[in-house]
Structures are given as C-alpha cells and as structure tokens.
C-alpha cells in the first residue's frame, strides 16, 4: 500500500471541510453586509468565497491518487497556508471594523 | 518537474541562501500531511469563532443589550482573527522542527483557547439565565 492510513484522502477531506465552513461564513457575511449595508462585510464575503473555491480545489487535488507522482504528496502547501491564514485574519478584521462604528455610539449613549 | 529536496540536489546551492523550508531533511510525508491537517483545524476553529460572532450580531437580538452583544461579537472577531493569523506561523514552526528532527514547539494557544472558550460559555450561560 502506497498511502498507509489514507493520509492523502484524509488531508484532502480536511481541505474540503475547511472550504465548506468558509462558504458558510461567507454566506453569513453576505447577509450581515446586506442587513447593515456594510461594505467591509461584503468585501470579507467576497474574499472568503473566493478562497473557499481554492480550498475545495486543493481538497480535490490532495485526494487524487496518482501512482506516477508519489513525490507530489510531500510538497507542503506553504503558500496556500499563508494565503488562507491571511484571508481569515483579514476577514475577521473587516468584520471587526464593521462592528466598531455601531459599538462606539451605543457605548456613548 | 518532480519535487526534490535541497539535500538531494547534485548542484547543491550555498546553504546560507536556502529558504527555511529547504533546510534539513524532508520529513516523512505522513507527518507533513498531519501538520497540514492541524493547520486546517486551527483555520476551522478561527472560522467557527467568526461565525459565532456573526451569529451573535445578526441572530441574537434578544441576548442582552446592544452594546454587550456588539462587544461580544467584537471579542470573537478579534479572537478568530488572531487564531487565523497564528495558524501559519504555528504550521511553519512545526514544519521546521520536523525538518531538523527537533521537538515540536509547544503552543501556548491551546490552553489560552480552552480558557477563552470556557469563559465565553459560562458568560453566555449566565447571560441567558439572567435575561
């Protein structure tokens, strides 16, 4: 067996799971963006939905079993990991930025 | 072009010019993939915190006064952002450690996240019971 423990399949499924969770957060962000007329939340939704597509594609790629390219599996997804982390951080900050203008007046009076 | 670790190259470049992910020996692919899955688990945790914050902001209008709800959402957004931002450095440190056959770094995030989640759960429970 060339892939003991089905490591590739498990990792591919983990990418897909993350992609689906990201789609859910993107949909919630769209709703929030429309409800509060918040451009920041809509931008976050756009970023998250685009990235979720990349993650789902990566999941599909990782799960593929290819006898001739056994070495490919060892390449860490360094750039994609950095990109995904940055998108999540940016989306969270955009959401925080959309909450602050409503929080500050509410605290003030 | 198949991937080849720097240590397998015949025309080995100057080690000082190599990037960190080219130093040391390539780890067993199973460990690299396990590290990747752990990274993704952190990302999903960050996304869950963000989703929770959006949920409080949009769907919990009965949960206490507006400033409290917005402050709670803000805290969750910041926590989600921090986790998302920390996921890559954590993955990179673990990858580096594996390439050099060193001990895996101990993450301070785990006890912090556990304490944060427990505090949040107790706080929300109190809020629901009091209102």
Structure description:
The complex is a heterodimer of chains A (109) and B (131). Chain A has helices at residues 7-35, 39-63, 78-108. By secondary structure, chain A is mainly alpha-helical. Chain A has one domain. In chain A, α1 packs antiparallel against α2. With 131 residues, chain B is mostly helical. In chain B, 66% of the residues lie in helices and 0% in strands. Chain B contains three helices and no strands. Chain B starts with 28 loop residues before the first helix and ends with a helix. The chains are: A mainly alpha (109), B mainly alpha (131). At the A-B interface, α1 and α3 of A face α1 and α2 of B.
Short note summarizing the structure:
Chain A contains 3 helices and no strands. Chain A has about 110 residues and is mostly helical.
Keywords:
heterodimer, A: mainly alpha, elongated, B: 131 residues, mainly alpha, 66% helix, 0% strand
- The parts of chain B where pLDDT drops under 50 for at least 5 residues are none
Figure out the total of helices of chain A: 3
Oligomer kind: heterodimer
Rough outline of chain A: elongated
Tell me, what's the shape of chain B? elongated
Average of pLDDT of chain A: 86
Major β-sheet of chain B, in short? none
Domain count of chain A, please report it. Answer: 1
Determine the structural class of chain B based on helices, strands and strand pairing.
mainly alpha
Query: SSE order of chain A in H/E notation?
Result: HHH
- Elements of chain B, N to C (H/E): HHH
């Amino acid at each position: 067996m060339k892939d003991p423990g089905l490591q590739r399949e498990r990792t591919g499924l983990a990418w897909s799971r993350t992609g689906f969770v990201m789609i859910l957060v993107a949909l919630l962000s769209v709703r929030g963006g429309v409800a509060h007329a918040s451009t920041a939340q809509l931008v976050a939704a756009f970023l998250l939905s685009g990235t979720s597509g990349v993650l789902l594609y990566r999941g599909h790629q990782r799960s593929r079993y290819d006898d001739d390219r056994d070495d490919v599996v060892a390449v860490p997804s360094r750039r994609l990991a950095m990109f995904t982390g940055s998108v999540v951080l940016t989306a969270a900050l955009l959401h925080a930025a959309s909450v602050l203008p409503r929080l500050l007046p509410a605290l003030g009076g | 072009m198949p991937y080849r670790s720097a240590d397998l190259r015949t025309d080995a470049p100057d080690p000082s010019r190599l990037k960190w992910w080219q130093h040391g020996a390539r780890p067993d692919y199973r460990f690299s993939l396990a590290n990747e899955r752990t990274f993704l688990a952190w990302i999903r945790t960050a996304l869950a915190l963000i989703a929770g914050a959006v949920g409080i902001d949009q769907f919990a209008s009965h949960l206490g006064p507006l400033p409290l709800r917005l402050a709670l959402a803000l805290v969750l957004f910041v926590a989600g952002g921090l986790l998302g931002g920390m996921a890559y450095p954590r993955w990179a440190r673990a990858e580096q450690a594996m390439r050099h056959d060193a001990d895996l770094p101990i993450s301070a995030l785990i006890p912090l996240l556990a304490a944060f989640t427990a505090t949040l759960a107790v706080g929300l429970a109190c809020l629901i019971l009091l209102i």
